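Title: Comparing notes on inverse folding

I've been comparing how different people in this forum approach sequence design from structure. To keep things fair, I'm posting one structure and asking everyone to reply with a full sequence. Here's the target:
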């Protein structure tokens, strides 16, 4: 049996799944699951990279114990975040997380040098305060010596690849999330990099999903008991998730539902018009240069945060049931409001926003949950309306992949608010997309469309109307 390993790390947790093909169908086996927690370090919110890497090593050890050695493995994570390495491959500074406040007002600094209109026209990337272009501005302001001494710019999955193989490669799909890649040219935009004053040498040639990174280094082989080849999937998790959507034609909208909700479609060419910029849609590069034209929506982060505020005494299923029991609660909020980005207490943030907007303030957990559920479904409906206005196309259904595809109440509300049929599943869409890139490279499937057909035949897809 030939196995492939997907390492899929989201903004709140990570998992490792072995995949193989049996009579044309995908078979998945979870090998390891671990938390991904933010830590406070030197006055910033940071990722615990050491813990993430040790978790990956543990997962590889688990493969050895099971006697299921992967031929290849691939790592995907969230976008925008990065590390800088010096010429001796030592990390400079910390792996600061996108929810850190260091990027406040950095957009103004960039726009003094490059207008928001020109930046969007060149990159097609939705303006978000945490975009890499603004994070690098914060480094330039706080620690200019880090940029001066850096030789390599690596995004989080690329750095994890480096720790495994010793090789430094920049992958295309994740690079597009930086706001530094020219959408039409599909490579680093040197004019932007020069204008904002970042060292051009940091940004190495972009390579595509399916590229081999290298074999595990000797010291890693000794730790885990075997060697395998590290291959690039679409290292931006949304890029991998979109690969696994079992859509049969181009009339479907994709919703990758996790900590973030990413709602959009695939296009052959980017849309970088002023209307698109104003409506805040983004053009993220995907597998085989297919553009993910989508909107970032706050997503299940709000629900995850509320569960943490309640010390995790309730399961997600219990919170969902509480929302159903408060279905008549009327208040809604703008889920993309900055108030919900990184509040000390999400429940208080929801209450305060309702109070400020003159609405009924939720008092119970169920009312807070209903407010969030209702607000999310309305945000999806509004995003679809904007998408249809820009593309001048009517869509007939929504495919939801990722962990949020299990949330039956949110799926049914989404169908109700959008008026579209909702098809939910597969749950492990991101890991499947990761595996697909590896398997296509290995010849298990002839192309992306054959792999998507196998996805459709392998998993139970639930329909909500």
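Reply #1:
Here's my take.
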């Amino acid at each position: 049996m030939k196995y492939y390993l997907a390492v899929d790390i989201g903004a709140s947790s990570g998992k490792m799944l072995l995949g193989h093909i049996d009579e044309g169908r995908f078979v998945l086996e979870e090998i390891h699951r671990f938390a991904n927690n933010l830590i406070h370090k030197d006055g910033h919110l940071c990722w615990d990279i050491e813990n993430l890497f040790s978790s990956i090593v543990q997962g590889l050890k688990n493969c050895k114990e099971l006697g299921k050695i992967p031929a290849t493995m691939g790592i995907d994570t969230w976008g925008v975040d990065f590390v800088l390495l010096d010429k001796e491959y030592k990390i400079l500074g910390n792996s600061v997380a996108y929810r850190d406040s260091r990027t406040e007002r950095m957009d103004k600094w960039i726009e003094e040098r490059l207008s928001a209109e020109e930046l969007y026209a060149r990159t097609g990337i939705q303006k978000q305060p945490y975009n890499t272009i603004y994070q690098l501005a914060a480094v330039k302001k706080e620690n200019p010596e880090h940029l001066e001494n850096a030789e390599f710019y690596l995004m989080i999955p690329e750095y994890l690849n480096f720790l495994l193989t010793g090789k430094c490669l920049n992958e295309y799909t994740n690079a597009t999330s930086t706001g530094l890649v020219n959408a039409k040219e599909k490579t680093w935009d040197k004019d932007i990099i020069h204008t904002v004053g970042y060292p051009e040498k940091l940004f190495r040639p972009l390579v595509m999903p399916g590229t081999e990174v290298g074999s595990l280094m000797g010291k890693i082989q000794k730790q885990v008991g075997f060697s395998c080849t590290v291959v690039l999937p679409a290292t931006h998790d949304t890029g991998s998730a979109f690969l696994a959507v079992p859509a049969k034609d181009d009339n479907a909208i994709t919703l990758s539902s996790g900590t973030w909700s990413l709602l959009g479609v695939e296009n052959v060419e980017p849309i970088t018009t002023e209307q698109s910029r104003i409506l805040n849609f983004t053009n993220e590069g995907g597998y085989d240069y297919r553009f993910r034209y989508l909107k970032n929506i706050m997503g299940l982060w709000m629900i995850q945060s509320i569960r943490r505020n309640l010390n995790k005494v309730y399961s997600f299923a219990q919170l969902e049931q509480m929302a159903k029991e408060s279905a008549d609660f009327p208040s809604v909020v703008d889920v993309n409001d900055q108030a919900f980005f990184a509040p000390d207490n999400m429940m208080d943030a929801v209450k305060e926003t309702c109070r400020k907007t003159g609405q009924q303030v939720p008092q119970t957990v169920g009312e807070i949950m209903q407010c969030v559920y209702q607000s999310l479904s309305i945000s999806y409906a509004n995003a679809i309306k904007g998408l249809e206005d820009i593309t001048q196309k009517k869509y007939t259904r929504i495919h939801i992949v990722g962990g949020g595809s299990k949330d039956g109440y949110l799926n049914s509300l989404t169908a109700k608010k959008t008026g579209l049929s909702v098809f939910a599943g597969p749950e492990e869409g991101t890991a499947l997309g990761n595996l697909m890139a590896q398997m296509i490279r290995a010849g298990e499937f002839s192309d992306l469309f054959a792999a998507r057909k196998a996805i459709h035949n392998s998993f139970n897809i639930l329909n909500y109307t």
